[in-house]
Design goal:
Elements: H1 2-28, E1 31-34, E2 45-46, E3 52-55, E4 65-68, E5 76-80, E6 88-96, E7 104-112, E8 116-123, E9 131-138, E10 141-148, E11 158-165, E12 174-179, E13 182-188, E14 197-203, E15 206-214, H2 225-248
Antiparallel strand pairs: 1-15, 2-5, 3-4, 4-15, 5-14, 6-11, 6-15, 7-8, 7-14, 8-9, 9-10, 11-12, 12-13
Helix pairs in contact: 1-2
This protein binds calcium ion (CA) (2 copies).
Residues 35-37, 59-62, 64-65, 209 line the site of one calcium ion.
């Protein structure tokens, strides 16, 4: 009897561990980090205009970053798509070179094509109309949702730009924007809520590194199929153990 009990406890603990591992695996499908240290930008695609390349001129981590090269039309953007969630944390480190005419770095999300997106524009103090701008474009309508001047944002230095998108109660529709972990913009907007791609961009020479997406704000992280299989196995084993105990009792 005692052997049975200790065996069932061990089985239960092992199953719980496996469920935890499977749970993490299921959650992890909705996150990525790219530091470009493998020497490529696989998984990213070029937007409408411009060009980009792996660069060793400036790097936030290791040796490599991605250089968004000069484009006179609308800047260069790289896009990552195929998201399964709409909310989460969109983050990039960014370096805007100050020796060029247009000093603008951008981060976009819920970007479904060229007509629907939220876009954060960062213009350092070296740029005449400097500040942080949050734009929403839906079809033909472009609206400025928020604008903040930031005297500490300079060209020729790395800074961290983070956008947190909430689509769960109690903050449904919230967009929080951070520079170097400091909250600078917080708005509620539900104009765009569908899952979409994540884009970073720049006008003239902008470098990006350590780009991260994390579905951290999702209301209920979904269980992976492995977790469901292990849960079913746990229930089965528990039922067998209880049945055996009843017979031997
Ligand atoms: Ca890579
Ligand atoms: Ca890097």
């Amino acid at each position: 009897m005692r052997q049975n009990m200790s065996f069932s406890i061990r089985v239960a603990l092992t199953c719980m561990l496996l469920v935890l591992i499977s749970f993490s695996y299921g959650f992890g499908q909705d996150m990525f980090v790219d530091d470009f240290e493998d020497g490529n930008a696989d998984g990213w695609e070029l937007g409408l205009n411009g060009n980009y390349a792996i660069s060793t001129v400036h790097a936030h981590s290791g040796q490599n970053s991605v250089q968004l090269l000069v484009d006179e039309i609308g800047g260069t953007h790289i896009v990552r798509s195929g998201f399964t969630a709409a909310e989460g944390v969109y983050e990039t480190w960014m370096y805007i070179e100050g020796s060029h005419e247009a000093k603008v770095g951008e981060l976009g999300f819920h970007a479904n094509g060229i007509d629907d997106f939220y876009m954060i524009q960062c213009k350092p103090v070296e740029e005449p109309d400097n500040g942080i701008y949050l734009w929403r474009k839906v079809g033909a309508s472009t609206e400025l949702l928020a604008e903040v001047t930031l005297p500490t944002l300079h060209a020729d230095q790395w800074f961290k730009l983070t956008a947190c998108r909430y689509l769960s109660p109690p903050r449904y529709g919230a967009i929080d924007i951070f520079i170097n972990d400091k909250l600078i913009i917080s708005v509620i907007d539900t104009g765009l809520t569908a899952e979409g791609s994540f884009t970073v961009g720049g006008h003239h020479e902008v470098f990006v590194d350590d780009i991260r997406y994390d579905k951290a704000n999702a209301s209920v992280p979904s269980l992976s199929p492995y977790a469901y299989a292990i849960l079913a196995l746990m229930i089965l084993i528990t039922a067998v153990v209880i049945f055996k105990r009843r017979i031997t009792a």
